[in-house]
Recover the amino acids of this structure.
């Protein structure tokens, strides 16, 4: 998959997201999230967790754990901590952990992903599934994930990234002002998350359905200037 570094700047209105807006949106979504989004996001979650399970290291942070849909899929030797800004979503995740006896889940915490309470290098892997387009400032999310993952560890993202052109681009552009109501940015682009000129992207893989989502894997190397993988 080609990473474009010359994409034009956004020239259409986007409703700003903030922490309170995200909390409000996911308070509304919590009771129906699994039914509405569980199916369409299932393949992306499975693929991301499979990649986590393949990677070395046992200390895993899931950022934006939501209702815990991915938690049962982690390998038993992983030690998973999940965080989310929505207390209502976390309550659903805690129920899942109890009901399914998920002993590899060692913690769930209400936390702002842009201002985490963890020490530097506390995790081997951090994964954010369908979260990057939800937070107010995705580059701050990326910076915090990089901080809490050890050098040489991995950052993984599964997300919808906006089309560069065509009919889907027009739809995403038209929906951009609804970001606060929806709880995410429909026109979210890869460059909103990271700078492909300085970040080592090891994997970009389209995910079903129909390539709507993309799995991105990044090798964490704070303080170094990295080249984009071919």
């Amino acid at each position: 998959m080609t990473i474009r570094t010359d994409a034009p700047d956004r020239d259409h209105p986007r409703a700003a997201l903030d922490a309170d807006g995200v909390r409000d949106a996911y308070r509304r979504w919590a009771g129906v999230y699994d039914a509405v989004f569980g199916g369409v996001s299932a393949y992306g979650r499975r693929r991301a967790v499979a990649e986590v399970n393949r990677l070395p290291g046992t200390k895993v942070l899931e950022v934006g754990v939501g209702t815990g849909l991915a938690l049962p899929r982690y390998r038993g030797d992983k030690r998973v901590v999940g965080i989310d800004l929505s207390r209502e979503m976390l309550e659903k995740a805690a129920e899942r952990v109890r009901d399914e006896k998920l002993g590899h889940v060692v913690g769930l915490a209400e936390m702002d992903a842009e201002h985490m309470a963890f020490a530097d290098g506390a995790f081997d892997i951090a994964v954010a599934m369908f979260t990057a387009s939800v937070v107010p400032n995705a580059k701050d999310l990326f910076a915090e994930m990089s901080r809490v993952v050890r050098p040489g560890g991995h950052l993984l993202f599964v997300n919808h990234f906006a089309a560069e052109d065509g009919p889907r681009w027009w739809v995403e552009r038209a929906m951009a002002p609804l970001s606060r109501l929806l709880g995410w940015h429909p026109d979210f682009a890869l460059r909103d998350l990271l700078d492909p000129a300085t970040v080592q992207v090891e994997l970009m893989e389209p995910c079903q359905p129909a390539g709507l989502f993309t799995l991105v894997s990044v090798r964490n190397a704070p303080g170094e200037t990295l080249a984009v993988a071919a």
